[in-house]
Design a protein that fits this description.
There is one protein chain. It contains 5 helices and no strands. By secondary structure, it is an all-alpha fold. It has one domain (4-144).
């Protein structure tokens, strides 16, 4: 796959990833108190940091998602860093056998709490694959453009 089809696919993947982060950040900002309870349930942060993180993290997701829509430098790196963080926290929760909601898209069905950690981990791994594809395709376009200029 080369040329225009790859460029269209890269842009489509980028916009889907951006949409996921915009939605996720926005839905959590609508109810930061519930998101703070979910964060506290993982037991990784001191109580004093839970509320600020419950506001700052969704805001960062929202900003990075919007930045990805407009191809603002650093947006993809921010999304990559957040995905690494999310994967680590989910892995920690699964390892400990925590029976809590992942909090990925705001509060979910309490009956699916433990199962949601595993599905969220798979979803985040898929998003990480999308990030890798975007980095790979950007590298191909830069190399190709460099050869055309010479």
């Amino acid at each position: 796959m080369a040329g225009l089809p790859l460029l269209v696919l890269e842009r489509g993947v980028r916009l889907v990833l951006a949409g996921i982060f915009i939605y996720s950040g926005a839905i959590k900002l609508l109810d930061p108190a519930t998101f703070a309870e979910i964060i506290a349930g993982f037991g990784l942060l001191p109580d004093a940091l839970v509320a600020p993180v419950a506001i700052l993290l969704p805001f960062a997701e929202l900003v990075a998602g919007v930045g990805l829509v407009f191809a603002i430098p650093g947006s993809l790196s921010a999304i990559t860093a957040m995905l690494v963080l999310f994967i680590a926290v989910l892995g920690y929760g699964i390892h400990l056998g925590l029976d809590i909601d992942c909090g990925c898209f705001g509060p979910e069905d309490p009956e699916q709490a433990y199962k949601s950690l595993r599905s969220a981990l798979a979803r985040d791994a898929a998003m990480m694959a999308a990030v890798a594809f975007i980095y790979w395709s950007r590298g191909r376009f830069r190399l190709r453009a460099g050869r055309l200029i010479r």
